[in-house]
Amino acid sequence: MILFDSVTKKYPGDENPALDSVSLHIEPNEFVFLVGKSGAGKSTLMKMITKEEIPDAGKIIVGGIDLDYVKKRHIPGYRRRLGVVFQDFKLLPRRTVYENVAFALEIAGMSGKEIRKTVPKVLELVDLSDQAKKFPNQLSGGQQQRVSIARSVARQPRILIADEPTANLDKLTTKEIIDLLKKINDFGTTVMVITHEESIVNNLQKRVITLKDGRIVNDQKNNGIYKLDEKPVPKTPIRNVQTPGHALKIKRKVI
Ligand code: ADP
To answer: For 22-79, what is each residue's pLDDT tens digit?
Structure first.
């Protein structure tokens, strides 16, 4: 679904590349967390997928589309095939919840009849049917993020990318949003989430890719936990690890 082959990106003026020969393959319907310290290259990787930035070297294929062949004039059309969710929601303040979702569909060229059919279904999915007439500033942060997710999934994208979707939310709301992303994934959408929140990564136990200094230093395909480094986290306390040296010490003690 998403393929990176030796992708390198260096911004003009920067000493080191933001992405340094990154290769990865995300299968259809996977749920992937992308983690790493600030400056590790997470947003750059996401911008490569949305074609906001272009790599200096390497190949990117998204949903079977080779991004080298997506010309400038086709980029908006290409982006509409992706769902993108941001930490600051990016809702239209003067439009209601219903209109925010409808507008995204209108831009995508959907007919009025289809829009009237689709919006209520999507609002039901995100559990906001009763808030349709409200404006963004009349909603809580979690509700605003749900509108933003509704808008992103209304066109039924095969891929949903979320950049720190819970950064501005409290713990309980964070769980609601992650549960919603999980539900969308269960319906067959490939989901990629950039996050700093250890607890949500550890609770979901999905694939976890760690970036460090523009390189993938860890890719836990299953049952992943939050790791910022390449060093494996010992599952048992060090004193219980049976190393040859450890065995030797025990022997000596016995002697
Ligand atoms: P993250 O999302 O993990 O915090 P970024 O992808 O934003 O990391 O940044 C990776 C590196 O690229 C950092 O060193 C950052 O300073 C640099 N960088 C990001 N965007 C730009 C830009 N537009 N111009 C110059 N350098 C940038």
So the answer is: 999 999 999 999 999 999 999 999 999 999 999 999 999 999 999 999 999 999 999 9
Domains contained in the chain, CATH given: 2-81+157-254 (3.40.50.300)
Cα–Cα distance for residue pair 48/15, rounded to 1 Å:
19
Q: Which residues sit with their C-beta closer than 6 Å to ligand 1?
A: 11, 14, 18, 36, 38-44
145, two tokens: 């993020």
CB 84 within 8 A of CB 153: no
Residue whose CA is at the smallest distance from ligand 1 atom 24: 11
Structure-token pair, residue 29 = 């319907």
pTM listed for this prediction:
0.88
Instruction: Please check whether residue 96 is in contact with residue 147, taking contact to mean a CB–CB distance below 8 angstroms.
Output: no
Cα of 9 to ligand 1 centre, how many Å?
Answer: 10
